[in-house]
Amino acid sequence: MVEKSHTAGWMPNIYDPLRNLGQRVADWFAPRSDASAMEDCYEINIELPGVKAEDVDVAVDGNSLTVRGEKRSQREETGRTFFFSEREYGSFQRTFRLPPDADNAKIEADYSDGLLKLKIAKVKSAKPEERKISIRKS
Asked: Cα dist. 79→11, 72, 76, 82, 83 in Å?
């Protein structure tokens, strides 16, 4: 809830134009993604429209996977007057916590058409061997 000053109640809030800016910045700095699990791996897909593969960095540190990069401006402004621009440029970063059974030594990254696909292998757990337990008679 936003409180208005009693002394300036009739004046428009000087922050009105900036109210949604925080959400717009958060939307860009946290690219849209989805995560899913399969029997042998996890997959994370991240939408990065307009970002070149060479401007994306993927790193793993312990159980954290971080994707960072930058969408660069390619704007040519000579002789052009912009009335508005809704295109966004700048740096972004997104960190994901990996599940305990994720094998952070086996991560693959593929990039195509603005979609980064990360495939994280699961640690193969040894299946417990079945063994017969002898029953003692008393």
From this structure: 38, 21, 9, 10, 13
How many angstroms separate the CA atoms of 69 and 93, rounded? 7
Residue-wise pLDDT for 19-35, tens only, equals 454 444 444 457 899 99
In whole angstroms, what is the distance from residue 115 CA to residue 78 CA?
32
Give CA–CA dist 22/17, Å, rounded: 11
Structural domains for the chain: 36-72+87-123 (2.60.40.790)
Inter-CA distances, 107 with 18, 58, 113, 120, Å: 40, 10, 20, 5
* pTM exceeds cut of 0.85: no
